[in-house]
Amino acid sequence: MTTLMRPAFDAAIALTRLDERIARSPVGQGWIERSHFTDACASLWIDGELVHLEDLVLHDDIRDIRTPTHELTIARDVLRTRRRVAAQSPEWALSADGIRSLRKTSEIGSGGGDEATTAGVIRPAVATDPEGEGEDIDDIENLPGVD
Known about the structure:
The structure is a single chain. With 147 residues, the protein is mostly helical. The protein has a domain at 27-89. It has helices at 2-24, 28-46, 53-60, 70-87, 96-103, 106-110. It starts with a helix and ends in a 37-residue tail after the last helix.
């Protein structure tokens, strides 16, 4: 354990110095924003999904050059969540309100009498065959639950 203490202590000092340099730098806000993008891509890489940084930047600015993939949409949600956490006070993310907000259960747990839940917006799934091809639908207006 004592052999790990020194490297951990040195890493903590280096991170503290980095934080201070970023806070004082004229390009610090850009560096932080860039780190949000790279962390959003990295969080999907951990799950085995590849999201290109350039595609995420374009998708975030609504300037997609191709149809967004499911993974790209998830990466943008991660990016937005990181921005929400960064915009709050440091203790907000681990507070009860922060956790409730990040888990998106504030409407359910508030007991405000509002019956707006996700059950009202769930669409029926389109049947797919084992080959991964979707069913051809000529008349989508006649599907139950589609408004």
